[in-house]
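USER:
Before I trust my own judgement here, I would like a peer's view. Write it directly below this note and I will take it from there.

ASSISTANT:
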Amino acid sequence: MKKVFNSVILIFSFLIPLLTISCSNTQESKLVYTENNTIKQNVKEKEQNITWTMELEGERLTKKINRGSMQLGSDVPYTKDLYKISKTYQRPVYPSIEDFGSLDTRDLRVSVKEKVNTFCTAFASEGHIGADSYFSKKYIFNYVFFLKDFEEGWIKYFGKLKTNKSSPFKRWLFGEPFNGPDFIQIPVRFYADCGTIDMTMFLNSSGNNEFYQITIDRWQKYDGTRQTDRN
């Protein structure tokens, strides 16, 4: 019995170091595995395992495309957006009137256009009420001369008296303006029942854009007779 007990003790004395070494190796292997199993390592391994396809239009994507030389296929719908980048693109064409000029008012600032339009509304009212207030006080005499020429020209070129009981004009339109360093020049055509009157309005380019002169350039009756005013 004593021999058996001694044998068991001897066996355990050998097993305990082995178990200690085994546990140590197990912990060490787990530690090594944790260090190598990082996110960066996982991403790298997945990239290596991905099968990439060939790049589509690689040469085209590296080139600088000249929009003016683009050729569109026959099966591509021709829209307004494609028109802007095609070689046939041109600046917009605005209508014009032969004896008046272009109607391109892109260079006419919105504030100036509104001011001229409200002046025309006042001038086209019965008795031209309020039209004089748009003139600079320094040049109010120019409005007086303009109004005198207008009243006399109406009789001379249209052959009848102008009545103050109704508006003399049905409508008006603006022509292409000229923006100078000191003044803005805007052609305006007024339409009356008996004909048209072409005027040029001059405004200060700064401040409140006050009027300082209006010239009457042309009178034309609807029967086709056109006469040019002395201005």
In short: The first helix runs from residue 2 to 36. The longest strand covers residues 211-221. Confidence is low (pLDDT under 50) at residues 23-34. Strands lie at 96-97, 101-102, 171-174, 178-179, 183-191, 195-204, 211-221, 226-227.
